[in-house]
Design goal:
Layout: H1 3-17, H2 28-34, H3 49-55, H4 78-88, H5 110-126, H6 151-155, H7 175-179, H8 189-200, H9 212-217, H10 227-233, H11 261-270, H12 281-285, H13 301-329, H14 377-388, H15 393-415, H16 422-444, H17 450-460, H18 471-486, H19 517-529, H20 533-545
Helix pairs in contact: 1-11, 8-13, 13-14, 13-16, 14-15, 14-16, 14-17, 14-18, 15-16, 17-18
Length: 551
């Protein structure tokens, strides 16, 4: 073994022993230093993620957006700091020890402790500070707050996996094996969707949830979330699997197994279970694909994201409703009932007008005046059921029943009394989430080729399967259709649902760093208020007539 390999092995062993004491590595000298340029002789990793993340991705500025401080201009950011003070009920800086937002205050009176806890709940999504890191990092963040949602926020604390992941044989480790070292699975679509929606929808177990009182105080409302669209607009800092050339370990291993001894030893010393190391990348990541005649390396990546995440997104929402209901029913502090952020915002926040010529509001599913759950995640989940059933109408209906039954029970519990009874909502919400988890897994294990993308798009143009009177459901459908058309090579995909350049659904997200979330509200909210369901149904009808039923 070379001296270099020996040092790597010793470092891995030390890191494994120190797991409980140090989970995070310095982002600047670790992730950022290596990923500024593509590694040499590596066909798998050809992207330059640091450049994309640092220069165009809004995630890198997630914490800065809370204060917008500029040392050269003390007045800059006053409006944002005032807004954040209005939301929190106190100055953000009041929870920090010093003026530079580097460390939270330690100890102190009960009020200081409360402020620190509130700010930490913001940092779960606006920085890299998960609940799991609190014991090791009570006041100083695991990664500098100035980095916002940094590499380790999404990919996991890298102290144990940083060195082994530099080895090419790392590709043959299963997602579960990588998770043993703290590495987050971001390649499995359902897992990636769960990661993203933990902030973009909420996850109580991870301390991520925007309560209605924050919205009422000025926090921008979270828009509906469609994974493929948000990935494209972020923009992506990775190369999708289908666009990678044939890379090492994808289909086979080097003929000389002895040449891998040092790499395998690095994995072993880092703590990778031997059973988690497979012969190839395919075997590690797609164990059932070969038996079904599937080739995931040729899947249309955004079509997969659009369809599979449809089930995973509704799953996140169902788990959020179920977990909050459980905590509220048990009387846990901080979980008062009702929590209005759990419901369909438009049930209350809509223009009070009467127009007999137009159907402006969704038909009530219960007693008028009782807000229902949000409808927008449902169409994507139905699409996942159709994909899992191969777009056979009968099989898709049977597949959807496994979701529709607990969904109907949950909706009945929500509408039985004003705001529902949390004790009655918990079990159907959990059953719904479990059914959606299985649906996402089943849909994942199918082919996402051009034919599947066409069938998915054709299905989405069927207005009878959509709550067209709901603006957010319409926008969700339009986002899905744009992504599915784009991956069929349709250059006009971004012009779908534009009328003489008018974006009447306001499909454009405030993407990249220059896009203002606050400024976007002045375009999004008027679009929602002026939404015309009949116009959208007509657009779907025209699109459907332009498409052959079969690819």
């Amino acid at each position: 073994m070379t001296l270099c390999r020996a040092l790597v092995a010793v470092c891995c062993a030390c890191l494994a022993l120190a797991q409980a004491r140090a989970q995070y590595l310095t982002t600047e000298s670790g992730c950022l230093s290596c990923h500024k340029v593509p590694p040499p002789d590596n066909l798998f990793c050809r992207a330059v993620p640091v450049e994309v993340w640092a220069q165009t991705d809004k995630h890198s500025r997630a914490f800065h957006l809370l204060h917008e401080t500029d040392p050269a201009d003390p007045a800059k950011g006053d409006a944002k700091r005032t807004l954040v003070k209005q939301i929190l009920g106190f100055d953000l800086a009041g929870a920090f020890d010093g003026p530079n937002y580097q460390r939270l205050k330690a100890g102190g009176d009960a009020e200081t402790t409360r402020k620190v806890a509130v700010v930490k709940s913001c940092l779960r999504c606006h920085a890299t500070w998960p609940i799991a890191a609190d014991e090791r990092y009570p006041t100083r963040p695991p990664a500098p707050l100035a980095l916002g949602v940094s590499c380790q926020a999404c990919h996991g604390p890298s102290a144990r996996w940083d060195l082994p992941h530099r080895e090419q044989v790392w590709r043959t480790v299963t997602p579960a094996g990588k998770a043993e070292l703290g590495f987050t699975d971001v390649r499995t679509t359902a897992a990636k969707a769960a990661l993203c929606t933990s902030c973009h929808i909420g996850n109580l177990a991870e301390g991520k949830f925007v309560k209605h009182e924050w919205y009422a105080a000025g926090h921008p409302p979270l828009p509906s979330f469609e994974l493929a669209t948000f990935e494209a607009e972020m923009p992506m800092h990775w190369i999708p699997l289908a666009k990678k050339p044939k890379f090492e370990f994808r289909d086979d291993r080097p003929a000389d197994e002895g040449a891998l001894a040092d790499q395998l030893d690095t994995l072993k010393r880092a703590g990778v279970p031997a059973a988690a190391i497979k012969p190839t990348y395919r075997a590690a990541n797609f164990p059932d694909a070969a038996a079904k005649g599937l080739d995931p390396t040729r899947d249309l990546p955004q079509a997969r994201s659009a369809v599979v995440a449809g089930a995973a997104t509704l799953e996140t929402y169902a788990r959020l409703v179920g977990e909050y209901s459980r905590k509220s029913a048990a009387g846990e502090p901080g979980f008062a009932w009702p929590e209005l952020a759990l419901y369909d915002c438009a049930a209350c926040h809509h223009r009070l007008r009467y127009d007999p010529a137009l159907e402006r509001r969704p038909m009530p599913r219960g007693v008028p005046g009782r807000p229902p759950l949000a409808r927008w995640p449902q169409r994507g989940a139905l699409l996942a059921a159709e994909q899992a059933a191969g777009y056979d109408a009968g099989q898709a209906a049977d597949r959807w029943k496994t979701v529709r039954q607990p969904l109907a029970e949950l909706e009945a519990a929500v509408l039985a009394t004003p705001f529902g009874d949390p004790a009655s909502m918990q079990m159907p919400a959990e059953a719904l989430a479990d059914a959606l988890f299985q649906l996402a897994a089943d849909a994942s294990n199918t082919a996402f080729d051009a034919a599947a993308a066409h069938r998915a798009a054709y299905s989405l143009t069927d207005a009878t399967h959509l709550e067209t009177a709901d603006y957010t459901s319409a926008r969700q459908t339009a986002w899905l259709l744009r992504q599915l058309f784009a991956h069929q090579g349709n250059e006009d995909a971004r012009r779908l649902f534009l009328d003489k350049g008018e974006d009447h659904l306001h499909l454009q997200l405030p993407s990249k760093q220059q896009g203002s979330v606050i400024g976007n509200l002045h375009r999004w909210l008027p679009a929602a208020a002026a939404y015309d369901p009949m116009r959208f149904r007509d657009e779907l009808g025209v699109l459907r007539k332009s498409m052959p039923r079969d690819p």
